[in-house]
Amino acid sequence: MTIDAIRELDRRAVLATVDVANRAGPADLSRPTPCAGWTLGDLLAHMTAQHHGFAASARGEGADLGAWKVRPPGTVKSYAEAADAVIAAFAGEGVAERDFALPEFGPGVAVPAEQAMGFHFIDYVVHGWDVARALDLPYELDAELLEAARPIALAVPDGDFRLEPGAAFAPALGATGDPGSLDEILLALGRSPAWPRVEGA
């Protein structure tokens, strides 16, 4: 996949998250989400921080841990502003040739722009669904986005390390879902499409 292709796919995935987040009101920020222990406000604060961190990396400033700092409470307005910022940063001059510092993966970790944007893209494919489920709204992505997301999701290593605090994804669930579906991607990354599951059901 070319850098231009993943950048455009990421832009579309991010805008889809903004569309669904914009349907949340202030009272919705206390709703639970599929991210264990996080309210919708917590999730939006995390998503906002990740946008700022990736935007900093696109500018060559991502090694600064302060760029990745979560600043709760998360709001719909701050999230939309951060989404605009990361889209603009990814489109910046010289970004395609830059390695992105990703200090959350470890000190000194940096990866090529295309790979970093792929990480960002798959994260927001999943987080868009997280927000939609918290709001009890349907969430659909077009076939092109799902086709691009599938190999990235299936390539994410699985194992007990996904149980560690701060892990991006929970361990993959047993069922695989229909190939090419959003459910398949969610299951591979530890999300149950049936969330929230009613106890005893």
Q: Tell me, rounded to a whole number, the average pLDDT.
A: 92
Q: Roughly what percent helix? A: 40-55%
Order of helices and strands: HHHEEHHH
Number of strands: 2
Query: Treating each run of at least 4 consecutive H or I residues as one helix, how many helices?
Result: 6
The spatial strand order of the largest sheet comes to 1-2
At CATH level 2, the architecture of the domain at 3-136 is: Up-down Bundle
SSE-based structural type: mainly alpha
Index terms:
201 residues; mainly alpha; single chain; 6 helices; Four Helix Bundle (Hemerythrin (Met), subunit A); two-stranded antiparallel sheet; 47% helix
Strand and helix map with partners:
Elements: H1 3-21, H2 40-58, H3 76-90, E1 99-101, E2 110-112, H4 113-134, H5 143-155, H6 182-188
Antiparallel strand pairs: 1-2
Notes on the protein architecture:
The protein has 201 residues and is mainly alpha-helical. It has a domain at 3-136: dinb family like domain (Four Helix Bundle (Hemerythrin (Met), subunit A)). It contains six helices and two strands, in the order αααββααα. The protein has helices spanning 3-21, 40-58, 76-90, 113-134, 143-155, 182-188, and strands spanning 99-101, 110-112. It has a two-stranded antiparallel ribbon. The radius of gyration is 16 Å and the shape is globular. The mean pLDDT is 92.
Brief write-up:
With about 200 residues, the chain is mainly α. It has helices at about 5-20, 40-60, 75-90, 115-135, 145-155, 180-190, and strands spanning about 100, 110. Strands 1-2 form a two-stranded antiparallel sheet.
